[in-house]
Design brief:
Elements: E1 4-7, H1 12-17, H2 19-28, E2 32-37, H3 41-47, E3 54-59, H4 64-78, E4 81-84, H5 85-93, E5 102-105, H6 110-115, H7 153-160, H8 167-170, H9 178-188, E6 195-199, E7 222-225, H10 229-233, H11 243-248, E8 251-254, H12 258-266, E9 281-284, E10 300-302
Parallel strand pairs: 1-2, 1-5, 2-3, 4-5, 6-7, 6-8, 8-9, 9-10
Amino acid sequence: MKKIYLWPAQGFGDAICLNALIRNICDEYDLVYLFCSEHFCKSIRWMLRDIKNLNFISVPYPSHNVWEQTIINFINQENLRVYELTEVGKIKSSGGQLDGDSVIKLGIHNDLGQFCRSIPEGSKNFDYSLNALPTEPSNLVLFHHIPKQAIPFYEAYYMMYDLPVDYRFSHFHYERDLETEDYVLRTLNPDDEKYIFVIEDGKHSLGYSICIPENRLPTQYKIIRYNKELNYTDDRFVLFNYYKLLENAEQIHTTETAFFEFMRSMSSPLNTLPSIKKSKVYIHSYVRNYITTKIDKDYNRLLR
């Protein structure tokens, strides 16, 4: 039985964006392995735990170079052939599959930048204008303001694999744990007060803090801050079990984090999961900004 290994970007937000793509690949191949950063492996495994033919390989992440070199060493040891996502997309479009044990790079490194210069021939997404795509790889990792004509990377992933852009949302899925969601809500708001939920990242894996200034938050409500350390010590606090806390908040204040990718996924009318009201979500884009798209137009985006 052939083995397919998936090599994504290391971030948790990337894994959430790739949820539907990973599921699609698992439907096409019998045995799939996903490389995961050790920091996020537990949460990614939880999100995809219903996929029976998907296995997880935890990779050390003291630095990006170590993460990458560990995967490269594994590839060399197992003598695996490596494919770019666009290559596999073309094979898929022609009705074929990969031969033998292989690695698929899920839209990382130069493949993402190269794709943004030309849509694969024969793609079902050929109607998308090249004017809407970024032209330089440096535009693909964004922590500053840039023109909004470029396509978000989480849409490009799907175009590279010759899937419709909407597939990222229409096939996003995870199995909810309603009992644990209740536990998280009761634990963090034991007195049933009105509250806002604040999502920031004081210890980002890139080595700096991503925080919302206190004077940009409303004062009339209790403030509950996301503490990702809880997830490291108690499995019940995996990000996805915060859904009811999000649902019951008066407002949600967030930066561009994995948590927002989760909310963006849940807020889409394209899937059958219950949505988070966009009108109560405030994105503090002056702290950290990515390319936006039409699905984001109903959020409250704070630019300064």
